[in-house]
Amino acid sequence: MHDLILLGGGLANSLIALRLRALRPQLRLLLVEGGPVLGARHTWSFFDTDVSPEQRGWLEPLIVHRWPGYSVRFPGKERRLGTPYQSVTSERLHQVVTAALPPDAVRLNAEAVRSAPDRVVLRSGETLPARAVIDGRGPEPSPALVLAWQKFVGRKLRLAQPHRLSEPVIMDATVPQIDGYRFVYLLPLDERRVLVEDTYYADGPALDAAVLRARIDAYALSRGWRVEAVEQEEEGVLPIALGGDMARFWAGATTARSGLRAGLFHPTTGYSLPDAAAMAERIAAASDLSTDALLALTREHALAAWRARRFYRLLNRLLFRAADPQLRWRVLERFYRLPQPLVERFYAGRTTARDAARILVGKPPVPVRRALAYLWEGSVKADG
Length: 384
What we know:
The structure is a single chain. By secondary structure, this protein is an alpha/beta fold. The protein is built from twelve helices and 18 strands. The strands form four sheets. Strands 6-5-14-15-16-13-17 form a seven-stranded mixed sheet, sandwiched between helices. A five-stranded parallel sheet has the order 8-2-1-12-18. A three-stranded antiparallel sheet has the order 3-7-4. Strand 9 (112-116) and strand 10 (119-122) form a beta hairpin. The two termini are 38 Å apart.
């Protein structure tokens, strides 16, 4: 009998496992993942200001790449910001977590077909009993949430010559605008290796990976890069929240949830690592890890985060509903003219009332009448 089963070996449950192992090593944990590795194939990035100094300390072993700043590019506008930025890879996540946990505390290639508050049933028919279960198997569709999408394909390229990037470009929106707001995301991994992601803020979740691969190839060619090899590829379709009812999203839940399955992500950027770190700390510090207590804790945490982030969902409605798809880049270009501390608080999910006013005042890059209609929509429809 395990004290706790963490169902799903993605970022959120992996961080929970690390914190519990570090702070409560006596617990009998089991991390169950349906695939062959933890974290699948993914790169998670975050700013120094997204996490607390304490969180930054225990996340340190997971960090593979770090840079002192980053830049953004828009038609006629380029800006560098001096906020330190770092990345965690799924390879490092797998390495660190499997080294920290006992060998029998990680089950790979173990696909779950059913879960309950006190057990997990695998496709093989095996039943894994536990005193509690946390389900972190990724997003689950729900009519309770109104969503748009951030979707991407990323390719780690090894080039024949140096790429001459010293820091990340987290948005290069000088590219043709297709399928909503499109930008290319660049992470320089070493002198000749670079992660290139073709990314879209789009109304629909459909992802044609072959088309995006071809656009990445064209982008590399446009920069004069000759590709020697594609070392790895990743893709994702991440939710962007426009509205909804988080209490209804959680209605009927019988087990605790984590990560995207709990509705924990930045509504506008889709970043999930800061939320995953915060949840891991709360669970590791909890005095009661019973089924009922963990369900109450994770539900309350998710609902509090949702309530605190209503402003971001309002902005998303302006971006996705009021702005013309081909001109959405103007909303982001205007945002990146604001002071760096405001930008940092925005990414960290700590936008103040004064920040919100600063973001909204002035001539909006969307039609005023349309903007007012969607501001009104959020005030009269459920968005709790």
